[in-house]
Amino acid sequence: MKSSNEYILHLDFGADGILKDPDNIEKTHKDKNPELMYIWTGHPEFVNQRVVDIIESVGLFILAIDVFKLVPENDTWVVHSDVGLWDRQEDSVKINWIYGNQQSPMIFYKPKDPSKYEIRALPLFTTFIADPVLKQITEQGKTDSKYVYYDHNNVEEIYQGLVGFPSLVQSGVPHTVRLIGEEPRYCISAIIGDKSEPFKPATFSNAASKLQQYWLQ
Ligand SMILES: [Fe+2]
User: Fold this and answer.
1) Which of 30, 42, 76, 199 to pair with 134, CA 20 to 30 A apart?
2) Which one has a higher pLDDT value, 209 or 202?
3) Structure pTM?
4) Please, what is the Cα angle at 106 between 110 and 127, to 5 degrees?
5) Half-sphere exposure of 37 (CA within 13 A, CB side)
């Protein structure tokens, strides 16, 4: 088994987060999935450039930013690993900032039968896709954003922990989040690329070692 900080590694970028103005969360681009929103990385209205600069200063960059919202009416994500457009199921990395409800853990699982999974597309539309080359967003009528779904009966819990402000998270391992309490939880989730391999996502260990000076001890 991996050690605990190979699933969630807390970082310290200073007090301010990725959002320029946290009160603007609900003004970010709405996806047609009611619980999803999207921020274009180059959108100065939403993004705190100081944090973007920190990430870029160590040789990483933000490929895209998703906003995931959990509310009492929709309080749990399915168990999944993030493959997105990538084909690296076991290892992918995001930097997540939690706004609002910070008491809801991210739970990681091991599939009992790893051969049993489904590749699923997001159920409705992902409206905006970032183009890292053209640095613009394209409106998409149809989603090409995918994830690997696991049935709850086919997984056993291996680790759970709180996501911080921010934390590096291992999103290639099956995981979910369950809301605890009534307060909405917003997860601002940056998909991280490596400048030396701009068309592939960074791995967790690579991003962790590049960000070592920012580990929260
Ligand atoms: Fe995920």
Assistant:
1) 30
2) 209
3) 0.85
4) 100
5) 17
